[in-house]
Amino acid sequence: MFRKKKVRIAIVVALLYCIALVGMYSYEYHFKNAWFIKKLEALNLNKLDNNLTYSLDELSVTEDGYIQLSGWTFINGMSTKDQKVVIKIYTADETEYLFAESLKREDVTKAYDNEANYDNSGFVVKLKNSKLNNEVYRIGIYLENEGRQAYINTESIIYRESQQIAFEHLSNKVDLTLNLEQRDMKYSIDALKEKKFGFEMVGWSFAKNIDMRNSSIYILLDNGKDHKLIFDSFKVIREDVKQKFGSNNLDQTGFVVRIPYDSLSDESKYKVSIVIRNNKKDSVIITNRVIEK
Questions:
Q1: In whole angstroms, how far apart are CA 224 and each of 67, 228, 292?
Q2: 40, pLDDT greater than 70
Q3: Per-residue pLDDT, 36
Q4: CA-to-CA distance for 140 and 155, rounded, in angstroms?
Q5: Whole-number pLDDT of residue 274
Q6: Cα–Cα distance measured from residue 31 to residue 25, given in angstroms and rounded to the nearest whole number
Q7: Coil, helix or strand for 172?
Q8: H or E element at residue 5
Q9: CB-based contact 221:270 (threshold 8 Å)
Q10: Which residues contact 2 (CB under 8 A, 6 or more apart)?
Q11: Structure-model confidence comparison of residues 148 and 227, the more confident one
């Protein structure tokens, strides 16, 4: 009888200890995170060093209702052994700071020829699906490593579309001084869609007698007044173009451009032109497409 009582007491004490331990770690975790968020809010993130290399690789929705974003990042040339990563997801009116869990990415170290140990550069963050409102959220990356702080606004966004979670990379607005050269150009704009963030344009273009594999495609918007904008594009392999025109180097003529509304002036119509840059020389063709905010 006495032995059973001692066993019961031992079990109760063990349970209380476990509860206290969980409570202590939960409080410490919450306290540390709350303190760190206040620290981030006090910083002018956009004035920090932006010497980051990164990739936002995949967004998925887990079975337990979380939005999960994974990728990798590092401060150039620094070991990632002790780095801390926080992902900022934000609109003009709200901000969420997501503390990243570190993932092993030995492939990143190899990809950069072992210039530093980037094995801990991988990260994953989670956000409750219910916390994502009907807005377009931009993504920023904050990184702290051995006293150095760095932050970069990525050109990636998350938003809801038809009850699904969309994850897309926006085109960068670039400062490009054109060095024009006359070339015969061909193009097709296969699709021009209005989306929640702005415009998505899909097509292909090439200039004759140049190697398109070593060329870049840009989109030039001109409102005919005082506003000219140039955006880079994402290359798309177009085997159909190569087959149609019978040239091996035309498989890399495809492009996707995603232009956010907030880059455009209100009440302006923009003519769309395509710029092809090769060896710092540019060719331009004015298309029959017009966009307006």
A1: 42, 8, 13
A2: yes
A3: 75
A4: 9
A5: 97
A6: 10
A7: coil
A8: helix 2-42
A9: yes
A10: none
A11: 148
